[in-house]
Amino acid sequence: MKLIFRILLLLINLISCVSGTFVVNVTQTYYQAEENHNITLEWTFTTKPHTSSKSLFIYCNLFVENKHFVVFYLHEGVEVSESQDQQFSGRVQFDKNVLREGRIRLELSRLRTEDSGLYLCKVGTDDGWGSDSCRLSVTAALDPADTTDQLSVKNQSVK
Ligand SMILES: *[C@@H]1O[C@H](CO)[C@@H](O)[C@H](O)[C@H]1NC(C)=O
Ligand SMILES: *[C@@H]1O[C@H](CO)[C@@H](O)[C@H](O)[C@H]1NC(C)=O
Ligand SMILES: *[C@@H]1O[C@H](CO)[C@@H](O)[C@H](O)[C@H]1NC(C)=O
């Protein structure tokens, strides 16, 4: 009898774990921006009052065809910049202040056309894991008033 009761309790715990699912959402599924501009990609995730930043993992990657690049990595609440891909070095601003509200805001600056692709963030806390992704499309700057540097690059690509 006692054993059955224990099993029942275990089941109830399991069910409440599953129904109180941890969710990760993107706030926008598609972003479009122009080269050299900045953009802020945003995700939301389930937070509980007891959620501590020490138990927080965030792993964001850019997927382009079969390759992936680490955009941002937060390990137990601490940013691990060493694992960030060279492509994003110094170009990703992470807003720590909105984490407590369950928001992940990544500002990518000086956008390049090769930043285009699928951005997937995996988030983990004591409550579970989840992920969601959005697409970013960076178009080449077409403004002829842009720097001559960009002009000569464009000239090359036109040939
Ligand atoms: C995620 O999206 C679903 C469906 O739109 C919504 O019900 C839920 O509250 C969202 N959760 C978070 C943490 O943003
Ligand atoms: C883009 O980001 C860079 C670096 O964070 C900043 O210096 C610049 O002012 C931003 N530009 C715009 C238009 O927000
Ligand atoms: C662009 O290419 C043309 C022909 O190759 C050349 O004459 C011109 O000087 C180039 N312009 C720039 C801005 O590099």
Provide a descriptive summary of the structure in words.
It is a single chain. The mean pLDDT is 85. The chain is 18% helix and 40% strand. With 159 residues, the chain is α+β, with helices and mostly antiparallel strands. The protein has a single domain, classed as Immunoglobulins (Immunoglobulin-like). The protein has two helices and ten strands, in the order H-E-E-E-E-E-E-E-E-E-E-H. The chain has helices at 2-19, 148-158; strands spanning 24-26, 30-34, 39-45, 57-64, 67-75, 78-79, 92-94, 103-108, 117-125, 128-139. The strands form two sheets. Strands 2-10-9-4-5-6 form a six-stranded mixed beta sheet, with no helix packed on it. It starts with a helix and ends with a helix. Bound molecules: 2-acetamido-2-deoxy-beta-D-glucopyranose (3 copies). The site of one 2-acetamido-2-deoxy-beta-D-glucopyranose (NAG) has 3 residues, from helix 2.
Shape-level CATH architecture: Sandwich
Order of helices and strands: HEEEEEEEEEEH
Rg over CA atoms: 21 Å
Instruction: Write the CATH homologous superfamily.
Output: Immunoglobulins
Q: What is the CATH class name?
A: Mainly Beta
Return the CATH topology.
Answer: Immunoglobulin-like
Beta-strand content bin: 35-45%
Distance between the termini: 82 Å
Q: How many strand elements?
A: 10
In terms of per-residue confidence, which ranges show pLDDT below 50 for 5 or more consecutive residues? none
Number of domains: 1
What proportion of the residues is helical, as a percent range?
A: 10-25%
Placed side by side, the strands forming the largest sheet appear as 2-10-9-4-5-6
Helix/strand structural class = alpha+beta
